[in-house]
Each structure stands twice: as C-alpha cells, then as structure tokens.
Amino acid sequence: MRPCWRATALYACATTILVGVSSSAAVAQNDLLVCSINTGTVLRYNGQTGASKGAFVSGGGLSWPTGITRGPDGRIYVASALTNAVNRYNPNTGVTLGAFASGGGLTFPQSVSFGPDGNLYVGGSGTAVYRYNGVTGAAMGAFTTGGPLNGAFGIAFGPDDHLYISSFGTNQILRYNGATGVFIDVFATDPGLSSPYGLTFGADGHLYVASGSTSSVLRFNGTTGASMGAFVTAGSGGLGTPVGVVFGPDGNLYVSSNTSANVLRYNGTTGAFIDEFVASGSGGLTGPSYFAFVPTCGSGDINGNSTTGMDDLPGFIDVLTDVDTNPVHIAAADVNCDSFTDGRDVESFVKLLIP
Ligand SMILES: [Ca+2]
Ligand SMILES: [Ca+2]
User: Fold this and answer.
1) 110 C-alpha to ligand 2 centroid (Å)
2) Sign of CA dihedral 83, 89, 94, 96
3) Same domain, 271 and 322
C-alpha cells in the first residue's frame, strides 16, 4: 500500500482503501442558517428542533448579512449588504471563500437566488436585479428592465420560471420574464402589503409574502396574483417586522421576526401559529433577516480539535471502515452532506484538506 501521509497521494490512497465500503442509511437532517444583521454573523440551528449550534459564519468581511442561499455547488452564499457583495462559504466549516459576486451596479444587496439557468440573481436597494455568472461570479450587469421596481428586497423564481420581486419602495410584487428580464406586470398588490421583504411559492402553488410594516404574511393566488388576504395575521405569535419566509422540511411556514429576534413557525396549511422555533436571542441572534434550511454537513473534524486537517485522516478512515462507530464521528465524516457516511465522502474530505 502506498503511504497516505503525502497529500498529493491522498485521494488515490484513500480511494484504494475505501473501495467497497458499504453505505449506511440515515434520515436526512437539516440545519437552519439564519442571518443575524446586528451581530454581522450567520448562526446555525438544528433544523428539526431549533436548538442553537453556534455561529456558522463570524467575521470574514461579512457586514449586515441579509439574503442567503445554498448554491448548486453546495456552498453557502450570503449577501453582505454593507460591503456590496455576495460572499461564499464552505458549507462544512463556514470558512469564507471570499467575495463571490460584486460590482455591476449592485448596491446594498438584500436578496439572492440561483436561477433556472444556474446564474446568481441579486436584488438590492436599486431599481434592477443584477445577474452574475453562477460559476465564476463575474458580473453580467442588470438583468431586469422596465417596471416600477424600487428596492428588490425579496426575489423568487416561480413555478413558471419567471422572476417575482418584492418591490419594497412601491409595495408591489412585480413579475419579470425569467429568461429575458423584461418587465411583465404588477403581479400582486394588497392594501395590507407594506414594505414587502421575502417571498416564496408554496407547495400549493400560491405566493407567500412577508409584509414588514404590517407584521403579517400575505398570500396571493400563484397564477392570477389575486389577493387571498393575510395567511399569518398581524402580530400572530408575536410576529414583528417579518423578513424571511420559508417552507421547512416539515411543510410548515417559518418566518423570521426581526423585532422579536426569533424565528416563528406557522401551520403550512392554515397559517395558525405553532411555536417559537428559534428562541429569541438564541445563540446571539439579533435582528434576524433571511434564512435557509440546508443539509447538515459533517465538518470532517473527526478528532474534535476544531480544525479539519491531515490529523483527521486516520479517524476518517477508521469511520469509513467501521473500526470507529462513534455516532459523533460518523456525523462529522459526512462531509458531502448527503446523510450517508461512506466512500462517497472521500472526494469531499480530500477537498477539505487540499483547498
Ligand atoms: Ca481535527
Ligand atoms: Ca456523505
């Protein structure tokens, strides 16, 4: 057997060792990543219980974090409003990979979404949504043209692949052609829609929008845009200035409540308040904005010394060969975030060692 202590030989070596390793089934787990504006951090919570798991990102050029999404490459993208950039992070460790997208006219980014074409779309305080190459981050300029857009504080591609935008300054939901960026129409309005932030389409095809100034979540027919009224009524469960709205893995609606510093959960069918999912101030949460459910990733730090490196290789091999059956170590070795710890984690583990 070739020695494993040379990094350049690591992949071939580990692959040799681990061929034929059987996979062990596991239930998919999720983490909840929440942008905490006032502390300039992204905090991590157990996606099933809401319990704090500490900071995911702290420092590293992040200032006034708002929009957050998981990219097609599995990495985490976060809008850093006060640095006019979208930063990229290692999903396992939270280590910064630097500013991914910036320039091209973008100011005060608030909302981020990867489009059907794989490129990154970013809305901010301006009058357009900007597009960036989804692989390189290169600026592609303003994507949207026309319409009354003033502050794209929430963006979402619909089931029809068109782009729906919360126009913060005009209290409207605007629709743009998802391929060309040309303005289509004012898709939805409601007297109760004021300072709209995040928006999302539900499994029922309808559109749910956080109405910041009325502290409610409104629902609109996803096809016609007709208002269906408040889905989450004003102040329900203590809701104050909602920003992010996301349907969770359990089918319920999660809403970040900015003024009460928590994340609240509502019945995904009725809108009735269920519980305070992330407790107020938990993990240091202050001024929560956007958030995302992401697959739970192992850190690769098998020996638990808070860094992932060559020192973890023996432990990683022990786990994959069933020499080590400690559940904590097994979870840490699931570095490709698929809820299985097996040979498919080798490539991702090596990438953690050789950036
Ligand atoms: Ca380690
Ligand atoms: Ca895995």
Assistant:
1) 32
2) negative
3) no
